[in-house]
């Protein structure tokens, strides 16, 4: 069949399954993943493996939009407004999860360093949509919610930066498996990260200039898409992080022209079918045969990541002298994981040699389904215990 037919099947299956599961109060992303799993090679085989591989360009486009949107959260004035305490909590809850997964994978389970670094970096990402859905549905109010909202807004940005550092170190280790100096392990990744940020900064300046010249929404949308695709394409061509580069485009625009919301809202109109396809394709690529092989690693990842999130959030809140309810319950609200983590796992699959790339992808996709099923329920329970959801 032609690729356009497969894209049609993916969209219909994703939307239909999400609609059915929404009746059970499950997040849309869970429906997309399950739809992809059902129509993919692991079950019905409607979408063959060769087709899913060819559709990777849709995933790369989706990641460009996701990173660009996350970059908009890096407005310097907004960061000053939320305060140092919230920033500290965000950094600690993200990086504690990263370090704990790294340590357990390398020193307890004896996994390769490159594999462990990449999987650990993905642990930082949190899915704000599922958490915010609970907050809005139950009209939760209080210090935990007030802290939670800015934390989840900034969390993925920290995750993308951690992933950028970890993947460049992992690539350096893989390419120089025969032996490499500590200086190169530090210097090469640093240069690659700086190069990605410079490309994004330059493209961000260009976008800021062009967005002021264009009046119509359609023209602006075309320019933003062209800039993002060019940024991602250049970064990928030189083996740099397209995520960091596209995030920098958004960060540059929001700081040089803070009142320019059009360049972000224009993209939001275009992205829904791209994101539905992205998540459903991720489900198509979920290999159940690999899932059996990585069962223990997956369970450990799921548990250790949650421990890291809770410990990091507690330490950040304790150091910053937040109320006891924030110290006790904030970590429970940071469990869901979806969009950015799925995107990072796709990059990991292309970064690490076989079988490790596919293993990271499978672990993260399976964990996402579990987190998205259990995360909202745990968030609701934590907010009830914190006294921020009033039960009738």
UniProtKB/TrEMBL annotation:
The keyword Transmembrane helix applies. GO terms for biological process: proton transmembrane transport. It is found in: Membrane. It is a multi-pass membrane protein. Keywords: Membrane, Transmembrane, Transmembrane helix. One of its GO terms (molecular function) is antiporter activity. The chain crosses the membrane at residues 28-47, 86-108, 114-135, 147-170, 182-207, 219-236, 294-317, 329-348, 360-378. It holds the Pfam family Na_H_Exchanger. One of its GO terms (cellular component) is membrane. Residues 10-382 form the Cation/H+ exchanger transmembrane domain. This is Kef-type K+ transport system, membrane component KefB. It comes from Sporanaerobacter acetigenes DSM 13106.
